[in-house]
Amino acid sequence: MLDRIVGSRRATEGNGHLAVEAGLITDATQLAAGRPTPWQTVQTARNIARPHALDIIGRVFEHFQELHGDRAFRDDPAIVGGIAELEGRPVIVVGQQKGSSTEENIVRNFGMPYPEGYRKAMRLYRLAQKFHLPVVTLVDTPGAYPGPEAEERGQAEAIASSIQLMTRLAVPIVVVVLGEGGSGGALALGVGDVVLALENATYSVISPEGCAAILWRSASEAERAAVAMKLAGPDLLETGVADALIREPAGGAHTDHEATAAAIKSALIPQLDRLSRVPVADLLSLRYERFRSFGMFVEPDGSTAPMPAQPWWRRILKNPLEKGGL
Amino acid sequence: MLDRIVGSRRATEGNGHLAVEAGLITDATQLAAGRPTPWQTVQTARNIARPHALDIIGRVFEHFQELHGDRAFRDDPAIVGGIAELEGRPVIVVGQQKGSSTEENIVRNFGMPYPEGYRKAMRLYRLAQKFHLPVVTLVDTPGAYPGPEAEERGQAEAIASSIQLMTRLAVPIVVVVLGEGGSGGALALGVGDVVLALENATYSVISPEGCAAILWRSASEAERAAVAMKLAGPDLLETGVADALIREPAGGAHTDHEATAAAIKSALIPQLDRLSRVPVADLLSLRYERFRSFGMFVEPDGSTAPMPAQPWWRRILKNPLEKGGL
Amino acid sequence: MRLRNPFGRKTKEFPSHLWTQCPSCGEMLFNKQLERNHRVCQKCGHHFKLGALERIELLADPKSFSETDAAIVSSDPLGFVDSKPYPERIAAAQAKSGHKDAVLTGDAQISGVPVVLAVMDFEFMGGSMGSVVGEKLTRAAERAYADRKPLVIVSASGGARMQEGTIALMQLAKTVAAIARLDEAAIPFISVLTDPTTGGVLASFASLGDIVLAEPGALIGFSGARVTSETIGEKLPKGFQRSEFLLEHGFVDQVVPRTQLKERIAFFLNSFRIAGQDLRWSL
Amino acid sequence: MRLRNPFGRKTKEFPSHLWTQCPSCGEMLFNKQLERNHRVCQKCGHHFKLGALERIELLADPKSFSETDAAIVSSDPLGFVDSKPYPERIAAAQAKSGHKDAVLTGDAQISGVPVVLAVMDFEFMGGSMGSVVGEKLTRAAERAYADRKPLVIVSASGGARMQEGTIALMQLAKTVAAIARLDEAAIPFISVLTDPTTGGVLASFASLGDIVLAEPGALIGFSGARVTSETIGEKLPKGFQRSEFLLEHGFVDQVVPRTQLKERIAFFLNSFRIAGQDLRWSL
Ligand SMILES: [Zn+2]
Ligand SMILES: [Zn+2]
User: Which of A163, A229, A295 sits opposite C204 (nearest CB)?
Assistant: First the structure.
C-alpha cells in the first residue's frame, strides 16, 4: 500500500551544485570518531569565543566595506553586510553578527536581528543582483528577535520576504552556517545554491530549550531535545540541510579563528568558481529543486496524484555543466 | 548670442497623451472672465468643505476596496488607496486624504503623509503593475509631514523612491490634483502620463507662506508670493505642469461634490481609454519626455553641447497612435 | 479567563454538546445556531475557530471543491519521541480531526472563479507545518502555476512542526519558493489569516499574499506572546498581535468578517484577472 | 554660536583673509593650511563646506575633468521679483561664486575609472535646484546612460529654487526620471551628500544612489530644522539630521571623511563594473 517515500535529500545521493573538494565533509563517515554529543555541539556553536561574522569576513575577504541601513527605518547592528573581494573578485557578503563580549552582545542584540536587519540584507541582495555579484551569507543567530517592536515592524513579513527574494535572486548564493542556525531567523539568510556549515554548527527549527519547554514541559530536557531534533553536523548532512561541512580546527573554531577562516576560504572559492559559470536559469531552477525536495512523507498509491517534482540530484544529470566538464 | 530657449512646456503647443474632451480646459482663454486671484485660489483649494480623496473616490468609482499598509511599519491614514472599478474596469486609485472636520484632520494628519504613506502608495503601484491595472492618483496635500519622526523614517527617501517608481511604472497613470499640490509631498503622487487639475487647485514648490517667510522675511507677504509663484490653474496650463483643468461647479468644488465628481469621472474615462491602448514602451518614453522637458533656460550657442532631448510634444508626432486613429 | 454568565443560570443547564459559551461576551450560544452562523457569535461577532471542511463550505461554490493530494501522510523522518512517539501523535490527531494532516487542498470555484484552494485546520496538531503540509501547499502552488489559476490559502497554524526538526523549518523555504514563482508569473495569491496564524507559517507563505486578509480578532504574530512577554519582562499591550494590530501596523490589507469573506475574495479575484485573460483593459 | 578662542588672543590678531576659526572646536586655522587640508579642521576634523572646483580637484584625477554644458544659464520663467528681481540675484551669485549656476558637470576619471561627475556648489544661491541645475544633472545622467559610464553626484543644496516656482519642483521628477533609467540599465550611481543636502535635492536624485555616502557632520534632511522644530513646538535632539543620524536610521551607507572619499568611491566603482565590462566573474 505504501508505495513510495518521496523527497528525502541525502548528501550521499548527490550534492547538486556543490563543488566537492578535499577539505569538505560530505558524508558523516568522514567525521572523526568520538564526535561530541548534539548537546555539546549546541554549546560549542554558542561559544562566545567562536569566530563571528566580522571575524570571518576580515580573514576570508579583502577590502571589506560595510554598507549600512535598510533605507526605511534603521541600521540593524545584528546584521552586517557589504562589498568585499574574494581573491580579487567582488562579492556581497551578509551575516548575522554576535558579540564576543557582553558589551558587544548588547550592541549586536546577541545576533538577533530586527525586521530592519532582514530588510537591509534584502537591499544588499538586490544590489548584488543589479551588479551581477555573487552573494555569500554567514548564518549565526539564536533566532530573529522576538520582542514587541520586532512584531510591530513585521518580523514575520521580513523573514518571509527575505526567503522569497533569495529563492529567485539571479546570482549565485553560498550560505555558510557559522554557529547557531536558529529557526526562521536563520533561514532568512539561508536560501542558497550551496549550503555549507562549520563542523560544529547547528541548524534547528526551534532552540532545544524551546522545544523541551513545549514538548516535555521542562527546559531541563533540552539535552534530550537536542538529540531528538537532529540539529548537529552529521544530521544536517543526513537530511541534506547542509550540502557539506567545513572542518574546524581540532579544538573547535573558537580555538583558532585563522585556521577556521582559512578553511572557509578554501571552501568558498571553488563553490563560487563553479556557480559563477552556471547559467542563471539553471541556477534558479536547481535552487528551486534543492528546497523543493525537502520533506519526508508517504503517499499511498500516488498514481492518481500528480507526480512530484523530481528530486534535484536527479535533475543534475541534465545539468549542461556536467557534460562540459567545467 | 542667446540662440535658443529650451524646454518650456505649454499646453497650447500640444498635450501628448491627453485625450482632449469638451469638458476639459486646455487653454487659459477658455477660463471664465473674472478669475479669482491666486491668493483666493489658494483659499479655495484649502477649503475644508472641498471634496477630498474619499469623497471623490466614492462618487467616481464603483466597489472601492481600500487596501491598507506599507508591509513594514504602519498604515498611514493620510494616504488612502485600493482597488475600484471605473465603469466596470478595475483600477488602482491612491490619494492623499484630508479631513472635513478638525477631528478627521487630526486622524488624517491634515493630509500630510509620513514616509510609510508613500511606501504604501509604492506597494499599490507595484500591485497595479503586476496585474496590469491603470493607476489614478489624487493629489491633495499641504506637503509631506515635516516632523522629526518623518525625518527619522526617511521622508526624503520615500518621496524620491516614489517618484522614481512612477517614472518607470509599466501601466498608465493619470494624476488629478484635487486641491493643494504641496511641494515634493505632492509630486510623490504626481508623476503620470496625463496630469489634470481641478480648476481651483494649486501646485507649488513651497507654500506661499513659506516662500514669503524666506524671500520677504514675512509670512504676511504670502499673497504677493502666491502671485509670483504662478501656482494657480492658468499658470499650471501655461507652464505645462497640468495638461488640462477640470471645470468646477460655479461656486467652486466645495459647493457641489456630486457635480465635481461627475466632471472628474467624465475626464478620467477618455484618458484611461486612450492610455490603455498605448504600448508600454511608448508610454514610458513619452512619460519620460513629459517630465524631461520642464525647465526654462538659455543656452548660448549650444552647438558644441549635445542637443537636449526633443520636447515631448514633437515626439508625439511619431506616436503610432496618431496614425492608427485609435 | 473568568466567564460571565449573563442569565445567572448554572452552566449545567447548558450541556456542552448543545451549547457553547462565547469567550468574548459570555453569551451562551446554541451550537446548531452557531454552526449556521459559521461559528461567529451572534451577539458580539466573536469569530470561533473554523474547521477546514466548514471553511471550504463557506468559501467554495457548492460541490465545486475537488480535493487533491488527499492520500499523503506523514512519515517519521527523525524517529522523534517526546512524551510519546510522533507516529502516535499523528494517529491521535487523525482520529480527532478526521483529516490526514493539517491542510486540505484542492481545486474549487469561488463565486464562479476557478481557483486552487488550500485550507489549514488548527485541530490537527495546532495546524503545524511539517512535510505533509509543506508538500501539499507546494503542490497546490505548483498546480496554480501550471494551470494559471489564482491560489487562495486560508491559514490557521501555530507554526512549524517541531517533531520534524530542521526538515519542518525547510518547509518555509519550500512553500515560499513555490509562491515566488507564482509572483513572477503574476498569478494572484490571496492569503487569509485566521485565528491563530503564527510562527513559521506567518514567516513564510502566509505573509506573501498579493492581498492579505484577516478575520477579526485573530491572533497573528511571529513569536508566541509568552516568548515576547518574557523577552521584555512585562505585559503586552491589549490587542497585541491581533488582526487589528497588524492592520494598524501595515501588514494586513483588510480585516474582513467571516460572513463577507467569500464575496471579498471574489472581488479581488475578479480585479486581478490573469494577464491574457482580461479583455477589460487593452493593457 | 559662542566661539571659544583657545589662545585667549583677540580675533583681530587673526585677519579673516588669513585665518578662519573652526566653528566646531574654536581653533584658529591658517587659511592656506586649511585649503591644503581640503578644508578639514586639522584639530577636530570638522568639515567646512567645499567649493565645486576644489571638490573636483579632490575627486577627479589631475587634468581629467572636462566640463560639459558649461554655457547653460538661467532665464526667468516667471518674471519673479521678491526684494530684487531673480535675474539680479543670478547675476550677483555668478559674480560671487564665479560659476554660471549651482552645479558643474563633466567627464572625469576617478582613480582611472571614467565617470560622469557632477558637483554642486552651495555658494551659488544655496545650491538651489532650478532649471539649469535640473537640466545639467539630467544631461549628465543621460550621458552616463549613453556612454555606459558610472555617474557620481556630489550634492550641496538647500533644495528647490523658489524663484522658479513649480518648474523648480518639476526638476525633482526630471532628474529622478533620468536616474531611473540608469537604474534599469544597471549603470552605477554614487551619491555623495555634503553639508548641507536638504529639501528637494535630498527628496530626489540624492537619495537614490546605489551607494550613498555622506561627509561627517553634514546637515542632511527633508525639512529645515526650523520647520520641524516649529511643527513639534520643541527643540530637536542633538545630532538631528546630521550624517551620523542618517547612518543610524539606515539612509546612508557610510560616513566617509573627505580625505578618504576618493579612494572609497573608486573602490565602489571598481566593484560595480558595468555588466559586460567585467571579466572577473563569468556571471
Ligand atoms: Zn460573543
Ligand atoms: Zn575644529
Answer: A163
Give the model confidence (pLDDT) of D47-63 as tens digits: 999 999 999 999 999 99
Chain B meets chain A (3+ C-beta pairs below 8 A): yes
According to DSSP, the β-strands at D189-198 and D220-221 are parallel
How many other CB atoms are found less than 10 A from the CB of residue D32? 10
Distance D237 CA to ligand 2 centre (A): 22
Q: A175-198 burial, b if ≥16 CB within 10 A, otherwise e?
A: bbbbbbbbbbbbbbbbbbbbbbbb
- Ligand number nearest to the C-alpha of C29: 1
A31 — pLDDT class (breaks 50, 70, 90): confident
- Can you tell me the mean pLDDT for A2-10? 42
> Grid coordinates standing for A156?
514575520
Q: CB atoms < 10 A from the CB of B29, how many?
A: 9
> In this complex, which chains have at least 3 CB pairs below 8 Å with chain D?
A, B
Q: What is the pLDDT of residues C79-116, one digit of tens each?
A: 888 888 999 999 999 999 999 999 999 999 999 999 99
Interchain CB distance below 8 Å, A127 and D252: no
Contact A295 C184 (CB under 8 A): no
ipTM value of the model?
0.93
Q: Which residues of B touch A (CB under 8 A)?
A: 71-73, 115, 119, 153-154, 157-158, 161
Whose cell is 538529540? That residue is A227
Ordered alpha helix ranges (H), C38-103:
52-59, 86-97
Please give the residue of chain A at the shortest CA–CA distance from B152. Answer: A73
Contact (CB, 8 A) for B126 and B88: no
pLDDT at B49: 98
Please report the DSSP string for B72-120 in residue order.
Answer: SS---TTEEEEEEEETTEEEEEEEE---SSHHHHHHTGGG---HHHHHH
pLDDT one-digit tens code per residue, B259-274: 999 999 999 999 999 9
Question: What percentage of chain B exceeds 70 in pLDDT?
Answer: 87
Of B71, B153, B157, the CB nearest to A154: B71
The CATH homologous superfamily to which domain D49-271 belongs is 2-enoyl-CoA Hydratase; Chain A, domain 1 (3.90.226.10)
Please report the domains of chain B, with CATH numbers, ordered by start residue.
2-322 (3.90.226.10)
Count other Cβ atoms within 10 Å, centred on residue B197. Answer: 27
Q: How many angstroms separate the CA atoms of B186 and B285, rounded?
A: 23
DSSP state of A289: H
Where is D28: in which H helix or E strand?
strand D28-30
Task: Report the alpha-carbon distance of residue A123 to residue D253 in Å, rounded.
Answer: 11
Cα separations (Å) of A131 from A124, B322, C118, D100?
11, 39, 38, 36
Do residues B264 and B23 lie in contact, with contact meaning Cβ atoms separated by under 8 Å? no
Query: Which residue of B lies nearest to D137 if distances are taken between CA atoms?
Result: B292
CB–CB contact C172 A184 (8 Å): yes
Distance, in Å, from the CA atom of B68 to the CA atom of B121, rounded to the nearest integer, reads 10
- List the one residue out of A26, A14, A4 whose CA is nearest residue A247: A26
- In this predicted structure, the answer to whether residue C67 has a pLDDT above a threshold of 80 is yes
Rounded to a whole number, what is the distance in Å from the CA of B157 to chain C's nearest CA?
A: 19
Range list for CATH 3.90.226.10 in chain C: 49-271
Identity at A149, one-letter amino acid code? E
Closest in B71, B73, B157 to A71, CB measured: B157
Tell me the backbone φ, ψ of residue D211, rounded to 5 degrees: -125, 130
Q: Is the pLDDT of residue C203 over 90?
A: yes
- Sequence-distant (6+) residues with CB within 8 A of C234 are none
Measured distance CA(C245)–CA(A95) in Å, rounded = 31
Given a cut of 50, is residue A304 above it in pLDDT? Answer: no
Q: Taking a contact as any Cβ pair under 8 Å apart, which residues of chain B between 2 and 21 contact chain D?
A: 5-8
Mean pLDDT calculated for residue range A141-152: 96
Mean pLDDT of C61-78: 93
